[in-house]
Amino acid sequence: MAVLVGAGVYFGMSRQDNSGSGPELSTPVQTAQTPSAQAASEVPQEYLGTWDSIIDNATGHHTRRLVIQQGGVGDPVLLLTADGPTKNGGTYHCGFTAELASVPTSNGPLRIESSAVTVAEPVSACRPGGASTITLLSDGRLRRADGSEQLIYTKAG
Length: 157
Known about the structure:
By secondary structure, the chain is an all-beta fold.
């Protein structure tokens, strides 16, 4: 069985039919991530969208793309893609999701649960992150803080 996972709105499953003629695509499965499944989002509008950041360090140039989507407590509202060079000269590509931990005030911050790895290339380069807090800064950027580390994101154009 294959599962297609995109930006969180469509899941399709491949199954073998009984005629032996091959796999067919089943009906899409509605998930908690689909807007039609949610009555209202707990995430303030200002946080929604795609945000980018860069980390430059001794191993090179690393990009981060953060997508914050609608959802309530317990829904996956954070999608993160991380790409860059590894210490041994290769590259990595990691994907993560994380759920909204609590209802934010009308202007945040967002409290996010620990992340889960959804894509790991190579597996050794991608580890789940701890719980984090996302704050909208006065200049329109976002700060995601995870313990003692933080990263600033700019809204993607």
